[in-house]
Amino acid sequence: MSFDRSKYEIIRASDVSDRDGIGVEIYSDGLMVCEIFRDDTKRTREIWISKQEVSLEEMEGFIQIFKDEIPWEFIDDE
Q1: How far is Cα 50 from Cα 32, in angstroms, rounded to an integer?
Q2: Which pLDDT value is given to residue 55?
Q3: Residues with Cβ within 8 Å of residue 71, at least 6 apart in sequence
Q4: pLDDT tens per residue, the chain (78 residues)?
Q5: Could you give phi then psi for residue 54, rounded to 5 degrees?
Q6: Which of 75, 69, 26, 22 shows the shortest CA–CA distance to 48?
Q7: What CA–CA distance (Å, rounded) separates 32 from 65?
Q8: ∠ CA(38), CA(9), CA(44), 5° rounding?
Q9: How far apart are CA 28 and CA 40, in angstroms?
Q10: CA dist 76 to 5, 14, 20, 25, 43, Å?
């Protein structure tokens, strides 16, 4: 079984209030399944999962979406 990206709605989203960075929100059937966010202040990349179970295949696909959509380098805000 292979990951089918077309089953998901992908939204690129930036945040500059509680955190400072950019990420992807991944939705299935109108519900957010996963968010992967690059936080430029903390210099981290974090995953938030709303479902209790996500297959390894799905998670690898979500991470690939993040890598395809979001620049890997942190932005220095100085």
Answers
A1: 7
A2: 92
A3: 22, 38
A4: 689 999 999 999 998 877 899 999 999 999 999 999 999 999 999 999 997 889 999 999 999 999 999 999 999 865
A5: -130, 130
A6: 26
A7: 15
A8: 10
A9: 27
A10: 31, 15, 10, 23, 9
Residue type, 14: S
For residue 15, give both structure tokens. Answer: 């945040």
- List the structure tokens of 38: 């690059």
**Residue 30 identity:** G
- Please state the domain extents for the chain: 5-69
Which uninterrupted H or E stretch holds 47?
A: strand 44-49
State the DSSP code for 59. Answer: H
